[in-house]
Specification:
Strand content: under 5%
Helix content: over 70%
Number of strands: 0
Structural class: mainly alpha
Order of helices and strands: HHHH
Radius of gyration: 17 Å
């Protein structure tokens, strides 16, 4: 993620949940063709499920994934708090 994108994310995370939801929706709709994106995600999901079901990939327990994500978020949060 670029520095500019990180700064925007930091600002967006300060918004109340309903404002963040509207912002996310506006960003989503700014993509040229959401139907193409939806189809690509559906295909990717099917590919990942098949890989998980066949044992081709390992999964990460939710608690571990959550902790990693929270650690990453702390790194991009403003340090002035």
């Amino acid at each position: 993620m670029t520095t500019a994108a990180k700064e925007i994310l930091e600002s967006a995370l300060k918004l109340d949940p309903s404002e963040r939801e509207r912002l996310a929706e506006a960003l989503w709709h700014s993509i040229d063709d959401p139907a193409v994106v939806d189809a690509a995600w559906a295909e990717e999901i099917q590919r990942r499920v098949a890989a998980a079901d066949s044992g081709q990939i390992d999964s990460t327990p939710w608690e571990e994934a959550r902790d990693e994500l929270l650690a990453e978020l702390k790194q991009i949060q403003p340090r002035d708090r």
